Amino acid sequence: MKKKILTIAAATLLGSLFMSNQLIAQAVSYDSSTKATTDGTVTIVENDNPDVVVPDPEDPDNPLDPEIPINPNPGQLRINYISDFSFGSIKNTASAVTLSAELDQLWTEDGSEVGRVPFVTTEDLRGTSRQGWELRVSQPEQFKDADGNELQGASLSIGGLRYASESIAAPTVNPNTIVLNESEQAVATASSTQGVGLWSLAIGKANGEGGTDGVTLDIPANTLKNNTDYTSSIVWELVADPSATN
Prior knowledge:
mainly beta
């Protein structure tokens, strides 16, 4: 009985060696006595549970840890992170007021707290069939208090859009100041050769007073205001292959 088992094992080993030689033969071609060609192979599979990365808009090689939540929804094309716009508090006045959004507070890998202008991080892990993307923004409704009273005439604007990298692979930003309204407006656009991977779009530059010059809220003179909080929603949408869609 033992002899039969050894014989079967030997046959299996020989068969394995034969198949191995066949595989090697298939992977290598010998063009001549001095030239041969072999293959290198790698398989890419979809990452079903990726680690969401938020690159520093000023130093993209280093990730940041935001205070507010990152996007928990999976996808090969996604918005990873968007800053809130906080304008702090002001005294009620009849005069016209222009407010700058405060800096976003985040943490570096070593635990140090840093202030950054508001920014948007996008990630595109799609393959060769991609035809780019477009990041759009809108403000469907005016600033309102808890009772639905509007901050009449107030306008929210963003501008000074920029990426830290100026390479040809960087998405193209809208160079104009964008006054937000209910219509979607393009903020940044990537062609089929742009915007692959991770990109953090900075909105303006730090103004030296704890805010950014890229996000402003203008309240006209003699605006009727209650002494309370006013809030408005800003909607961001990352549209895949806008040229194909249009």
